[in-house]
Amino acid sequence: MLSHSLQAMPLPEQAAIPGGVVIVPLSASDLAKPVVTYRKKPVAVVESDGQWVAVVGVPLGAKIGSQRLTVTQSGRISRALFEVQNKAYPTQHITIKNKRKVNPNIYDMTRINGESAKIKAALRHWTEIETLPLPFAWPIEGRVSGLFGRRRVFNGQPRRPHSGVDIAAPTGTEIHAPAEGVVRDTGDYFFNGKTVFIDHGQGLVTMFCHLDRIDVKAGEIIERGHVIGTVGATGRVTGPHLHLGVSLNDARVEPRLFFPKRKAVHGDEKE
Which among 244, 271, 267 is positioned nearest to 255, based on CA atoms? Predict the structure, then answer.
């Protein structure tokens, strides 16, 4: 179950770019734990090496330059600044056979709009804990077929940037939880297909899309390595794969910052 012990902990790799993670030092850890917000959303704060630090997810749409955190500590409100540098993400062109997955009809849009609120609620959930269960363990092995941040063009039409990492694997491949957490929700969505959300605490949520089978239920407490489902090709896909997403303070960020470096596999998409 979720850990509640206060201790120094591993942190994600820092990348001060849109879609990255920034570690912002706050104060000595013998002072009261600060409460931090960024863009009016709560931010993870942990103790590391004798100080409180904010672990901030930077949205892909963040502006380049100075960003501001609001810090409340012992009744006092202050500001903390960090800088975001530019990152040019390449464009990826994809052909989708099912044209409705690119241009949904009016009935599809009714479904999509209803699903959107459920997805947002899962990604914005906050569970107050003291530590984060890092580093994550890779949920499957396979070829990286889609990198984070790519500007997606489906059938010649620009769409939102890619919000996760795609790992190609055969249908039926078991998917393992990257760390302990609570299954915040599951669903079968128009674009994402069969999906599982795992809440790891303090606004850190992992997202697993396009599953063939879901093996967990909302509210279930799981441990690292727990089988949460299997790889599939549901939703908007060109073939079987796992879309692995990481959300931090409701910002979709580069998943690889939270995992150990993996060995390159033949056919991996290049940077």
Answer: 244
